[in-house]
Amino acid sequence: MFAEQGLPIIDGASMKITHQGEVYTLSEGIYSDPTNTKVYNIGTSFICSESYEEDFSILVRDENGWIASATTQILKPILIDTLETVLTPDSPYKA
Fold it and tell me: How much is the pTM?
């Protein structure tokens, strides 16, 4: 697992995500996301239901009893109808 500088890597922690009353236990392992060409070392084989209105909570507990928790919501996707590139005069990318 990659850690922010100054934060320890914690092996053997218990990790759980709760959403709509369902608890999803995360495990250490190799999990791939071929759609986004990413590989993760923590995950689950279950997919949480899509919800933009309800909270997702995570609870992490290590072997020493240290606990970290957080709650968030997933933002709704937004439609991008136009994408425009504006090059500045000093841009290395010239048309």
Answer: 0.64
**Angle of CA points 68, 69, 71, to nearest 5°:** 160
Provide the strand spans (E) within the chain: 14-19, 22-33, 38-43, 56-61, 67-72
Number of folded domains that form the chain: 1
Domain assignment of residue 65, yes or no: yes
| pLDDT tens digits, one per residue of 9-63 | 677 889 999 999 999 999 888 888 888 888 888 888 888 788 899 999 999 998 8
Q: Is residue 22 part of a domain?
A: yes
| Domain hosting residue 47, numbered range | 14-72
Distance of CA 68 to the CA centre of its chain: 15
